[in-house]
Design goal:
Structural class: mainly alpha
Number of strands: 0
Shape: elongated
Mean pLDDT: 95
Length: about 80
């Protein structure tokens, strides 16, 4: 685990401390979670593009063809 020093504007530091306290977590845990969330948001498009590049329209259609053609239950209809 790494230790870093981060300079935050007082207003952001104060708000983060309040939110962390409301969630009953440490400020450190809140900041680590916020950084992880941002990393996830920024890398999702790249991840999905890489997964899509591995996909095959033919395999998709073959899998879809195996799904039985049935009417949905009443509670599943719009």
């Amino acid at each position: 685990m790494s230790t870093i020093s981060v300079r935050l504007p007082d207003s952001i530091h104060s708000m983060a401390r309040v939110i962390a306290s409301e969630d009953h977590i440490s400020l450190n845990q809140f900041i680590a979670s916020a950084v992880a969330e941002k990393i996830s948001a920024l890398t999702t498009e790249t991840y999905l593009a890489a997964r899509a590049a591995k996909g095959s329209a033919e395999k998709f259609r073959a899998a879809l063809a195996k799904v039985p053609a049935v009417d949905p239950e009443e509670f599943d209809r719009l």
